[in-house]
Amino acid sequence: MHTLEQLRSGALAGITRLSLSCGLREFPREIFTLADTLEILDLSGNELTSLPDDLPRLTRLRIVFCSDNPFTELPAVLGRCPALEMIGFKANRIEHVPELSLPPSLRWLVLTDNRISRLPASIGRCTRLQKLMLAGNRLSTLPPELAACRNLELLRLSANALEAFPHWLLTLPRLGWLAMAGNPWCKAVEESADRNVQVTGIDWKDLQLGDKLGEGASGVIHAARWMAGEQTRSVAVKLFKGAVTSDGLPEREMAACIMAGSHRGLIPVLGRLQGHPQAAQGLVMPLIAPEFKTLAGPPSLQSCTRDVYAPGFTLAWTQVLAIARDIASAAAHLHAQGIVHGDLYGHNILHREGEALLGDFGAAWLYDPGQAHAWGIEAMEVRAYGCLLEELLAHGQPEDAAGQRQRAALAGVRQACLSADVAARPHFEAIVAMLDTLATH
After folding, report:
1. What pLDDT, in 10s, does the model give residues 88-104?
2. Global pTM?
């Protein structure tokens, strides 16, 4: 984080990224002294309501963050910034997105947790758009012009006011990560699932929280000891934050985790937390063995929709096959129950030799697997799985002729999963069968 004093003194000359969070009510004009180099501008956590009309003077500006400000309108001037690729205005008070506010060069738009009831038709001009995050708004429909965004890969629409599922989304050839929970159109299936799913209640007073294991958008995970009668068990406790996240609603994540049930490729739920002194919601799960490692890091500003792997990261060929098979099987299990994971990514996979676990249901949503468009919903997530296969193939190399034949076959599965013809993609059950056959040859 930088300071106004540094900016005004000239100490920041030549920087490419500027971060200011100091109660700003007006845009500091001194920022224009960085016009020759500034690429990333982060003004989150201030009191700004507008941006200057001459913002396009920052000709190298690629990324603008203005989250946690009281903007009521997305500034139209953003549409005139010549190099702008990413806009992040999360948790403002935005009600209106002007037609001219979206630059055609846009790849990544974050408007999570605002008050937006409609998107402008001009979004159809953003043909490079890959990532669109709109959870926690008031959208009742989507503009048909969005169908022109054929490069769109990740879309977050949870916790909006959509009365009907926009089935045309399933024709977008690159869409693989979609979140839809908490909309009126899926209320009936969500309520039915909530009524029918049974889970053990685990009292807060029977838990002893230990070290923090991790934190995500929806909650914090702690190691804990669970005293069940005379037995004590090591567990993990996820305490939900209770606010709208970039993916959606924590309560829908919790419901999907419980509904998913038991499968060797999923982290099971032991019970639902009850009796928390601040009424926090939570889940109790087995403590995962420390030899399990996260497969990848989440996408970066540069990679946009694709995970980031550690430099030099490699997998044994047996691990590639095990991860591919376990995750396909877990996805088949979920879709058989009408659950979309919504975030099928390497950064949500834990793995060790011969085994993989799919976690983080923050973007999960429910659908009726008997409905007419059910196959299109599964085919959309099959594409996300194809991206995972692409990454596994890039980081694992067999050492013998049999492995090379398996690799060629797995590359064929990847190609089928990534087909631009959505109807031509294989079902997850068929993928599992192909991988089982592949493993025996």
Report:
1. 999 999 999 999 999 99
2. 0.94
